[in-house]
């Protein structure tokens, strides 16, 4: 019997078009349907201000932890296919979007290719990533950056507010 190595990965989810709460909620559930992948837990939903291009609606964001037998590039391909199934378009950087999925962390892998950089190079600079991540994985270490709970403190004042705090997913 061949044993498949299981990997721990974290995925950021975001949407600001076509009922964002529904889009992110559905995508969280669909992570569990990816090949050889199981959803472990997901953060609450957070309402956040747009970054990079301000003339657009606020976002709904979350972070999910998954366990997968896929390698990092395979998981990225599966995430991109999931985005596309939701009608993701990329007219310009930071454009409004139906669904955005970013692979944040994959085990303790550090890598940089033409299509994938791990850990995500800007995750520690974004309150809309760090606040949901600290909710579900405060003790995770971002390689060469630090502990999630230490980093997230600096983003507590950003426009990141929990949506329906009584309906946490875990």
Automatic annotation (TrEMBL):
Keywords assigned: ATP-binding, Folate biosynthesis, Kinase, Nucleotide-binding, Transferase
Protein's GO biological process: folic acid biosynthetic process; tetrahydrofolate biosynthetic process
One GO MF term attached to the UniProt entry: 2-amino-4-hydroxy-6-hydroxymethyldihydropteridine diphosphokinase activity
Pfam annotation, one family: HPPK
CDD domains, per database record: HPPK
EC number(s) recorded for this UniProt protein: 2.7.6.3
Pathway(s) where this gene product acts: Cofactor biosynthesis; tetrahydrofolate biosynthesis; 2-amino-4-hydroxy-6-hydroxymethyl-7,8-dihydropteridine diphosphate from 7,8-dihydroneopterin triphosphate: step 4/4
Ranges where the 7,8-dihydro-6-hydroxymethylpterin-pyrophosphokinase domain occurs: 10-138
Entry keyword annotation includes Transferase: yes
Keyword Kinase: yes
Principal EC category: transferase
Function: Catalyzes the transfer of pyrophosphate from adenosine triphosphate (ATP) to 6-hydroxymethyl-7,8-dihydropterin, an enzymatic step in folate biosynthesis pathway.
Record-stated family: Belongs to the HPPK family.
Name the record gives this protein: 2-amino-4-hydroxy-6-hydroxymethyldihydropteridine pyrophosphokinase
Organism: Methyloradius palustris
Phylogenetic placement of the source organism: Bacteria, Pseudomonadati, Pseudomonadota, Betaproteobacteria, Nitrosomonadales
């Amino acid at each position: 019997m061949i044993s498949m190595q299981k990997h721990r990965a974290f995925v950021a989810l975001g949407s600001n078009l076509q009922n964002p709460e529904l889009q992110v909620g559905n995508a969280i559930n669909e992570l569990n349907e990816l090949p050889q992948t199981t959803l472990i837990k997901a953060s609450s939903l957070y309402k956040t201000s747009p970054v990079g291009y301000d003339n657009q609606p606020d976002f709904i964001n979350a972070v999910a932890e998954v366990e997968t037998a896929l390698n990092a590039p395979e998981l990225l391909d599966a995430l991109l296919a999931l985005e596309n199934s939701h009608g993701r378009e990329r007219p310009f950087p930071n454009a409004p979007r139906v669904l955005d999925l970013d692979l944040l962390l994959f085990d303790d892998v550090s890598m940089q290719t033409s299509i994938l950089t791990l850990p995500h190079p800007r995750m520690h600079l974004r309150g809309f990533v760090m606040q949901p991540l600290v909710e579900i994985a405060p003790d995770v270490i971002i390689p060469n950056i630090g502990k999630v709970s230490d980093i997230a403190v600096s983003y507590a004042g950003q426009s990141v507010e929990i949506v329906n705090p009584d309906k946490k997913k875990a």
